[in-house]
Amino acid sequence: MRRILAALVAAAAVVTTAPQAAAAPADRVVTDYQDPVQALPPVSRPPTPSCTVTAMKHTFANSYGQPYVGTLAPPAQCAGPWTKVVLSWTASSKGRQYDRLAGLWIGGAEVLRTSTPEPDPSGITWHFDRDITEFSPLLHRAQPFVVDLGNVVNQTYTGPYDVEVTVTYYQADRAHPAPEQADTVLPLAADAGQPGWQALPDGKNYTAQVTVPANTAKLTAQVYARGGGCEEFWWSNVPTELAKAYPQAGLCGGGTYREVGVRVDGRPAGVVAPYSVIYTGGVAPMLWRPISAIDAIVTLPYTIDLSPFLGTLTDGRPHTVELVPPHGIVDSWTLGGNLFATTDPGVRRVTGTAPSTEVPEAEVRVGTTGTGLDTSIATHVARSWHTSALLHTSRGLVPVRASGQWTFDNTTKLADSASKQNTDQHVVGSYGSMGKVDGFDFSLRADVTQKIVDDNNYRIDASVHMGRRLWTVGGGRPALSEDTIDTSGGFGRTNGVLTYADGRSHEQWTGLDDVGRWYSKRINTEHGYVV
User: DSSP class of residue 345?
Assistant: First the structure.
């Protein structure tokens, strides 16, 4: 189903739109829509003196294998220390174009991952901010500045992406001091002047060599992960044997469970449960016009505490850190990330015991009912892992522990020879790290109905519910957010003419903003515009 759907979306992009009268009375043909919007809270700006630097103004046209490479240096009049550093991304596009994945690196550290909305003929512009204060240790000197956004412009896909990136440095003062945070950033990228991500198939890992400061007392890994091709829709994939048995259905294999792992010197150090992000052309493009799916534009990384491994990592020698894509995938996952080290000025070297690790392979339970392409597939995983050690620091003997636990449940139903597919997925759990707990609750429901005669006669209707609830307790300021999107719509052609392209949606974000204030926003849209 997914490969067929992608082909039809591509074909629909080049069809000349019929007059409104050509559509059925209940249908609309929406070809222009409002600039993309989201309900996320804005990044706060402190009231201190600041300086803004334009880091990049660049057009990404035929840009596969041709990243932007420049230099970012702090302005002399805002040399720091900084209470906050904010990166702003503003982009526009006009014409026809697929959604494209993009990444941004400073000094080899992946600072941002995003993807693009799909433009309309009259053009769209979108903007978002990213708090990059945690990368301050890299920002005090000139660094390579790299942006990768692979794009194709030709007679069919006519939309280049014009992107401007600025960085604003806010000076610290007594009322707004520099935050307490990691003092060393260790990029996993091998070359700071090139994109630091890797597209990895099943069985191939992202391998990096890092040398950790000898007096590191805390070490965390920050991981970015996105699936491509069939792996964009991993949450709706079916068992590989079913996909192979019915190739005409265009189903994607590999099942529905995914996790991304981290290894240190070959030993499992932890795993994370990725969010089921949907690109802005995913399922049906009008679902995401103008509200983009959760995590599509502002992508959040995943964090694993590697402190239990410091007893072996602080010997001054290079050590291996690996990012491991999900097992059994049928297309690639694009992985990248960084390490953040907090050092102890009271000792020359932090030592410790060898880590105790309990990171078993996931036990994935799959049950099916029905036969052939009229079947229901239920997948359940109860996941748990932990690592621990004792560290010798200036505060004496300190126990450290990292953990993760979650339950994963996905039921995917095929009906009418796979012309109908329903997916209901729920993942809930938490990560623990030295008194801090980061909880998460992910929900996804998708209904897709396809009526396909051929490339010139078809109709696709879909509805999607997405939810992401995050909370943090312990280890500093508490955090809480809940983001939900409900959207429906579809598209279709009759005798080669686009006769249906419409959607409606609403998004609700509620929680604490980045300074702990309560924030709530709701957006309703119909026919591509906020109402």
Answer: T
What are the beta bridge partners of residue 114? 102
- Residue 520, Cβ density class (10 Å: 0-12 exposed, 13-18 middle, ≥19 buried): exposed
What is the predicted pLDDT for the residue at 62? 96
- One-character DSSP codes across 48-94: S-EEEEEEEEEEESS-TT--EEEEE---GGG-S-EEEEEEEEEEEE-
On the CB side of 343, how many CA atoms lie within 13 Å of its CA?
15
Q: 78 near 154, Cβ under 8 Å? A: no
DSSP code string of 157-214: ----EEEEEEEEEEE--SSSPPPP--SEEEE--S-TTS---EEE-TT--EEEEE---T
Name residue 337's beta-bridge partners.
223
The whole-model pTM stands at 0.95
CA R_g for the chain: 24
> What's the half-sphere exposure (Cβ side, CA atoms, 13 Å) at 190?
9
Helix or strand run (H / E) with residue 136: helix 136-139
CA 12 remoteness from chain centre: 27
Structure tokens at 236: 């709706």
pLDDT tens string 104-113:
999 999 999 9
